[in-house]
């Protein structure tokens, strides 16, 4: 970790020195300036993490400083300093990209908190930029399967296992919730092994009735059943030399379980209605989002087949178990969704990333992919905003926020600040009113504009303020 570089700009010497001293005590490298011109000149000379600038200064004011820094180095965070009681300038500044504001007279705890938060945020923005670069490099040599995105410890564990099994013929059982990337991993195992030039054939065992699935998998001879006008080879034969991916293996009926077991033992298939058999060399990878052991215990799945399939097991983490991968995945899907189309969307607002990382994602990576795809088609500007996300995601993130607050309260076992009480109360009322802002404002005894301002102050996303869209209470 490098020491963060912070610039302070204020024409009031007392405020400037007080702030600079407080930050030096926290161990930051601080440089102080008495005018907008000077701090902008310093900005041109090299990397700065954070700028604290007074709004009202001589010729070059805080908003100009903000705009200049956002233009020169977009990943430098800017916090504006406001005179006591004048929030108007602060709100304008935040609209123009300032991360936060500090009101005078400064309180030491508040300085610490705001600076800390801004620096964290700055780090996040830089990481995002780095992710994009990494992805660009990665997707260069990619063949037909999409790249695997994610560098969380849980995914590194998965990659390690994948690397170990690519060269062998061992049967692999992929376990994981829906949308965690089981098929993608199966394809990766195939594409990185010696069978890569042979077919990879996915079969969804849950999608067809057993009799149809049987003739699909094993083929049939002419006249095997009504309508079997000629011989047809099954998917096992089609996959010869390559990989057969049996998805939702838990849904396989008892008769087919026996037949599959036999094929695996004998390495040959017998077509439906046939007498002879055909040699096949097929690697089998299976996947399930069910608890197969439980199925075995309940007698729904043969234990002998289970042991054959479960030679190597790879368990995919759910998305909440690897939240740190969410920003990178989101950017990956953004790139995927906006390439080739007329889309102008180039990035994702940090607030949007915050909502994305807070949500629980029951549908895992697939749900995230859908959310980004939808956002790209809805977005009006170059950056994806929280409003572009599905309602459920924004609401879910609010729920998480609420739980976190109550956990924090428990952890402190102390009094909440008034601010925290206000925030919690606001979230509760909004939730109970299902996001209806007119109703919520009425209950809180404030007008709608105040409600929006409060939400903005607490960093809550409650949707766009559009005249006439909020329903009057029934
Ligand atoms: N690590 C990852 N990196 C990039 N994309 C991913 C990753 N994991 C999953 N995806 C994408 O998410 C979507 C769902 O993945 P996949 O179909 O492999 O999931 P699954 O586990 O097979 O889901 P299901 O159980 O519902 O069939 C796909 O579009 C896939 O490309
Ligand atoms: Mg799947």
What does the main sheet amount to?
Answer: 5 strands, parallel
Helix/strand-derived class? alpha/beta
- What is the CATH architecture term of the largest domain? 3-Layer(aba) Sandwich
Q: What share of residues are in beta strands? A: 5-15%
Radius of gyration over C-alpha positions, nearest whole angstrom: 29 Å
Mean pLDDT metric: 85
| Distance between the amino and carboxyl termini | 56 Å
The largest sheet has its strands arranged as: 2-1-3-4-5
> Which ions, cofactors or small ligands are bound in this entry?
adenosine-5'-triphosphate, magnesium ion
Helix content bin: 40-55%
Number of strands: 16
| CATH H-level homologous superfamily name of the largest domain | P-loop containing nucleotide triphosphate hydrolases
Structure description:
The chain is an alpha/beta fold. The chain has 3 domains: 5-134, Response regulator (Rossmann fold); 153-315, P-loop containing nucleotide triphosphate hydrolases (Rossmann fold, 3-Layer(aba) Sandwich); 321-457, Helicase, Ruva Protein, domain 3. The chain is 48% helix and 13% strand. The protein is built from 19 helices and 16 strands. It has helices at residues 13-25, 36-43, 62-72, 88-95, 108-139, 153-165, 182-191, 210-218, 235-238, 254-266, 292-297, 303-309, 326-338, 350-358, 364-378, 391-412, 418-432, 437-444, 448-457, and strands spanning 5-9, 29-33, 50-54, 77-82, 100-103, 172-175, 200-204, 219-220, 232-233, 243-247, 268-269, 278-279, 283-288, 312-315, 347-348, 383-384. A 5-stranded parallel sheet has the order 2-1-3-4-5, with helices on both faces. β4 (77-82), α4 (88-95) and β5 form a beta-alpha-beta unit. It is elongated and about 95 Å long. The model is unreliable at 135-146 and 466-474 (pLDDT under 50). The site of magnesium ion has 3 residues, from α7.
């Amino acid at each position: 970790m490098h020491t963060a570089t912070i610039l302070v700009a204020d024409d009031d010497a007392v405020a400037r020195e007080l702030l600079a001293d407080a930050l030096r005590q926290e161990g930051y490298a601080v440089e102080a300036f008495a005018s907008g011109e000077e701090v902008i000149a310093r900005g041109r000379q090299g990397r700065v993490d954070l700028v604290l600038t007074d709004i009202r200064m001589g010729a070059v004011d805080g908003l100009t400083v903000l705009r200049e820094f956002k233009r020169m180095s977009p990943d430098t965070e800017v916090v504006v300093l406001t005179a006591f009681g004048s929030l108007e300038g602060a709100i304008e500044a935040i609209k123009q990209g300032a991360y936060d504001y500090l009101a005078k007279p400064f309180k030491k705890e508040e300085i610490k908190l705001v600076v800390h938060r801004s620096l964290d945020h700055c780090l996040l923005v830089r990481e995002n930029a780095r992710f994009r670069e990494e992805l660009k490099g990665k997707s260069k040599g990619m063949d037909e399967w999409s790249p695997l995105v994610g560098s969380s410890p849980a995914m590194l564990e998965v990659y390690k296992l994948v690397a170990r099994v690519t060269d062998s013929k061992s049967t692999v059982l992929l376990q994981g919730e829906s949308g965690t990337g089981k098929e993608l991993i199966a394809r990766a195992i195939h594409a990185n092994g010696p069978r890569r030039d042979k077919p990879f054939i996915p079969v969804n065992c849950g999608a067809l009735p057993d009799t149809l699935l049987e003739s699909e998998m094993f083929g049939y001879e002419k006249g095997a059943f009504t309508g079997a006008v000629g011989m047809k080879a099954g998917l096992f034969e089609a996959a010869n030399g390559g990989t057969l991916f049996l998805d939702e293996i838990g849904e396989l009926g008892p008769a087919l379980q026996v037949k599959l077991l036999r094929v695996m033992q004998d390495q040959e298939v017998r077509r439906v209605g046939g007498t002879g058999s055909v040699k096949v060399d097929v690697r089998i990878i299976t996947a399930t989002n069910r608890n197969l052991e439980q199925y075995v215990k309940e007698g729904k799945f043969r234990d002998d087949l289970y042991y054959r399939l479960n030679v190597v097991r790879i368990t995919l983490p759910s998305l909440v178990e690897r939240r740190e991968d969410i920003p990178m995945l989101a950017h990956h899907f953004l790139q995927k969704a906006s390439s080739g189309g007329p889309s102008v969307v180039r990035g994702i607002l940090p607030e949007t990333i915050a909502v994305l990382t807070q949500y629980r994602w029951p549908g895992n990576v697939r749900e995230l992919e859908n959310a980004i795809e939808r956002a790209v088609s809805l977005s009006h500007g170059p950056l994806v905003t929280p409003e572009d996300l599905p309602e459920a995601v924004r609401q879910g993130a609010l729920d998480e926020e609420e739980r976190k607050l109550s956990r924090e309260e428990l952890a402190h076992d102390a009094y909440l600040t008034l601010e925290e009480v206000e925030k919690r109360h606001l979230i509760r009322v909004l939730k109970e009113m299902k996001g209806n802002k007119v109703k919520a404002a009425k209950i809180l005894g404030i007008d709608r504009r105040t409600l929006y301002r409060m939400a903005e102050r607490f960093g809550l996303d409650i949707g766009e303020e559009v005249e006439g869209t909020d329903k009057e209470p029934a």
